C-alpha cells in the first residue's frame, strides 16, 4: 500500500476517501504542498494529493466567472484569466517564500486556506469571490454547492464553509470564482518616516477617502530603510493622475509623497503580499494578527520586547509579527495582549513541534468549539480528513 494516493479524477477521490472512512485510516490532503506549514501538524500515514486534477474548466469573461479543478496551479489559472483580461481580485497570498517552498500553489490549496492578499481590504477575501465548489466529504460523497452566479442562500452556505476549512470538511475538487477585469494601470504613493501610529492614521484617512485606495500598508523602519507608508491606486491612467493628486492634497499633513509607477508598484505590493520584509531570518516564527486599525499600533508597541520585525496591511487591520524562536512562539505573552486588543491571532510559521504544542488558530469559546465540532462531524464523521489540522477533535 503506497503512502501517496494520487487520483486522476473525482471518482478516484471519492473511492480513496470512502476507503479511508471504512478503515478509519486518517489521510492528509495536499494540493501542490506549498502551504504544508500552515496549521497544526497532521498525524496521518497516507496523503491524498489532488495534483492530477488539473485544468481550467470554465472561462466566461462577459459573465465575470471562471472555474478550475483543484490541482490546477494558481499561476496557470491566473495566466488563463489574464489572457481574457480578468483577474482574481483578492490577490492570492503566495506562501512559498514564507515556508521556503518550491512547490506550486494550487487552486484547491488557495480555497482550503482562504489565501488572500492586500486587496482584500477593498475587494474581499477568496471566500467572498468563491461562488461555487465541488467537495468530496469525509463520507466519500461529492457535494456541489453554489454555481455560476452570486446569489443569496438559506441554510448552510457550503461554499463559505469550505473556504478556509483547511481540508477538514472535504476535499475540494473544483472551484468557481467571480472575477474582475484587470485595471489599465496602477501607481502607489509612498510617505517616508512616519511612525506606526501616524502611518496607520494616514492609511485610514486614505481608505476613508473617495479615491478608491486598493492597498494600504505600513512598513516600519529597519536598519537599512526608513519607514514607508504605502497607498495603492488602480484603474485608468487618466483617473490615476487625478486621484493621486487629490489623495496627496488630503494627506498633506503627513508630508510629501513619492510616486511609484506601475512596475515598481506591482513589485512592492508583491513583497507586501508575501510579507517579504519579515523573512530575512528563516528561524523566526511568524504570527498573523487581525485587529481594528485603531488598536494596531498600540498592540505592536505592547508586543515590542517580543517583536523582531513587523508590518501592517489592510490599513492596519492586519498586523504581521515575526518573533525570535521560542518553545511557544511567544504565545504566552502574545495571545493575552491580542485578546485585550479584541483581535485574534494565527501562528503561520513555526516548527512542527511548536505548532503541535500551542494553539495555532485563535482558541474558540466553548460554545463555538462545540458548534465547530458538530459541523465537522457532519461532514467527516470518522475524522479521517486532515485530523488535527485546525483543532483537536474531542
Can you summarize this structure?
With 394 residues, the chain is of the alpha+beta class.
Structure write-up:
This protein is an alpha+beta fold and 394 residues long. The chain folds into 3 domains: 1-182 and 364-394, Uridine Diphospho-n-acetylenolpyruvylglucosamine Reductase, domain 3 (2-Layer Sandwich), CATH 3.30.465.10; 185-273, Alpha-Beta Plaits (2-Layer Sandwich); 278-357, 2-Layer Sandwich (Alpha-Beta Plaits). Helices cover 32% and strands 25% of the residues. It is built from 14 helices and 18 strands. The chain has helices at 10-23, 74-83, 96-99, 107-113, 120-123, 126-129, 158-162, 196-207, 237-250, 262-273, 293-302, 331-340, 352-357, 366-379, and strands at residues 4-5, 27-30, 46-49, 56-60, 65-69, 86-87, 130-137, 142-146, 170-178, 180-181, 185-192, 213-219, 228-235, 258-260, 285-290, 307-313, 318-323, 344-349. The strands form 5 sheets. Strands 4-5-9-7-8 form a 5-stranded antiparallel β-sheet. The chain has a 4-stranded antiparallel β-sheet with strand order 12-13-11-14. Helix 8 runs antiparallel to helix 11. The protein is globular and about 65 Å long. The relative contact order is 0.14. Residues 150-155 have low confidence and may be disordered.
Q: What are the defining features of this structure?
A:
flavoprotein, 394 residues, 32% helix, four-stranded antiparallel sheet, alpha+beta, 3 domains, five-stranded antiparallel sheet, Uridine Diphospho-n-acetylenolpyruvylglucosamine Reductase, domain 3, Alpha-Beta Plaits, 18 strands, Oxid_FAD_bind_N, 14 helices
Amino acid at each position: 500500500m503506497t503512502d501517496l494516493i494520487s487520483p486522476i479524477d473525482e471518482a478516484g477521490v471519492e473511492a480513496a476517501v470512502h476507503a479511508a472512512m471504512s478503515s478509519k485510516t486518517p489521510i492528509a490532503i495536499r494540493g501542490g504542498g506549498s502551504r504544508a506549514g500552515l496549521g497544526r501538524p497532521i498525524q496521518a500515514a497516507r496523503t491524498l494529493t489532488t495534483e492530477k486534477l488539473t485544468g481550467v474548466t470554465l472561462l466566461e469573461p462577459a459573465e465575470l466567472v471562471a472555474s478550475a479543478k483543484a490541482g490546477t496551479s494558481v499561476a496557470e489559472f491566473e495566466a488563463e484569466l489574464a489572457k481574457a483580461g480578468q483577474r482574481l481580485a483578492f490577490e492570492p497570498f503566495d506562501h512559498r517564500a514564507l515556508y521556503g517552498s518550491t512547490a506550486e500553489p494550487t487552486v484547491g490549496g488557495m480555497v482550503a486556506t482562504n489565501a488572500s492578499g492586500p486587496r482584500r481590504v477593498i475587494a474581499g477575501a477568496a471566500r467572498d469571490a468563491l461562488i461555487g465548489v465541488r467537495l468530496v466529504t469525509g463520507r466519500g460523497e461529492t457535494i456541489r454547492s453554489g454555481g455560476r452566479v452570486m446569489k443569496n442562500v438559506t441554510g448552510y452556505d457550503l461554499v463559505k464553509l469550505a473556504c478556509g476549512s483547511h481540508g477538514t470538511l472535504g476535499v475540494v475538487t473544483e472551484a468557481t470564482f467571480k472575477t474582475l477585469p484587470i485595471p489599465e494601470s496602477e501607481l502607489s504613493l509612498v510617505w517616508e518616516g512616519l511612525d506606526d501610529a501616524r502611518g496607520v492614521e494616514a492609511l485610514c484617512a486614505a481608505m476613508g477617502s473617495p479615491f478608491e485606495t486598493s492597498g494600504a500598508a505600513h512598513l516600519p523602519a529597519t536598519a537599512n530603510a526608513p519607514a514607508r507608508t504605502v497607498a495603492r491606486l488602480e484603474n485608468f491612467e487618466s483617473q490615476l493622475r487625478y486621484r493621486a493628486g487629490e489623495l496627496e492634497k488630503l494627506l498633506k499633513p503627513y508630508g510629501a509623497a513619492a510616486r511609484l509607477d506601475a512596475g515598481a508598484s506591482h513589485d512592492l505590493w508583491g513583497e507586501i503580499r508575501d510579507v517579504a520584509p519579515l523573512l530575512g531570518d528563516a528561524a523566526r516564527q511568524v504570527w498573523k494578527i487581525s485587529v481594528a486599525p485603531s488598536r494596531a499600533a498600540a498592540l505592536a508597541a505592547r508586543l515590542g520586547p517580543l517583536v523582531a520585525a513587523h508590518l501592517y496591511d489592510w490599513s492596519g487591520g492586519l498586523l504581521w509579527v515575526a518573533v525570535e524562536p521560542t518553545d511557544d512562539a511567544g504565545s504566552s505573552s502574545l495571545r493575552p495582549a491580542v485578546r485585550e486588543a479584541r483581535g485574534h491571532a494565527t501562528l503561520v510559521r513555526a516548527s512542527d513541534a511548536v505548532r503541535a504544542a500551542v494553539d495555532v488558530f485563535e482558541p474558540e469559546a466553548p460554545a463555538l468549539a462545540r458548534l465547530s465540532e458538530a459541523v465537522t462531524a457532519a461532514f467527516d464523521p470518522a475524522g479521517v480528513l486532515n485530523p488535527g489540522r485546525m483543532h483537536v477533535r474531542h
